[in-house]
Amino acid sequence: MSIEDEKQKILLDHKLQVRRIFLDKLLLSLVIAAVAVIGNYLLERYKSYLTKERFLFEERLDVVEEIREQYDKLIIFNGNLLLRENSSKENKREYNDAVSRFAKLIDRKGVVLDGGYKDRLRNHVWAHLAAVQMHDLEQAKRTEMGEKYARFYQSAFLEFDDLTRELVWGNIDANSELFIF
């Protein structure tokens, strides 16, 4: 081998090593770019998820406030109907209308609510509908039932508070019992 052949061989080795270094750096930069793109995608997806959850949380709070206002009205109408001795048919009609508004509110705004929460609220509606029917009982029986319902509504009111807290914090159990008589 001559010196020229050696120079050619060394030059060829040098070009191959430069190409190898270039390819290594190119592949390394592609891997870093891919990791950055995937990381950015995951970060944006997480931010989108948090935005959606925040929106749903705020909507749930708004709906729970509306439901709470209607529920407070139901309790007031319940007291007017059952605990007064001279409750009128007008009181019964107002109470029945309030129960209907409460049920419609649950159905209309229930999209953002958990299914278990809606089911448990419907149990409250049924209890109030039963209370509307008590208006037709004679006064002594209505007073006796009214006292039982007053105790029931006191526990139901506390249960409603717990139910609302569970919904807001997301710990609702759809299969749990609502009332134990």
List its traits.
181 residues, mainly alpha, rod-shaped
Largest sheet: none
- Helix-strand sequence: HHHH
Helical element count?
4
Query: Quick one: overall form?
Result: rod-shaped
Structural class: mainly alpha
The whole-angstrom Rg is 35 Å
Average predicted local confidence, pLDDT: 77
| Amount of beta strand | under 5%
Give the helix proportion (percent range). over 70%
Kindly state the number of beta strands. Answer: 0
Q: What distance lies between the first and last C-alpha atoms, to the nearest angstrom?
A: 105 Å
> Which regions are unreliable across 5 or more consecutive residues at pLDDT < 50?
172-181
Descriptive notes:
The structure is a single chain. Helix content is 83%, strand content 0%. By secondary structure, the chain is mostly helical. Helix 1 packs antiparallel against helix 2 and helix 3 runs antiparallel to helix 4. The protein is rod-shaped. The N and C termini lie far apart (105 Å).
Strand and helix layout:
Blueprint lengths: L2 H80 L6 H21 L5 H19 L5 H31 L12
Helix pairs in contact: 1-2, 1-4, 2-3, 3-4
Task: Offer a quick outline of the entry.
The protein has 181 residues and is mainly alpha-helical.
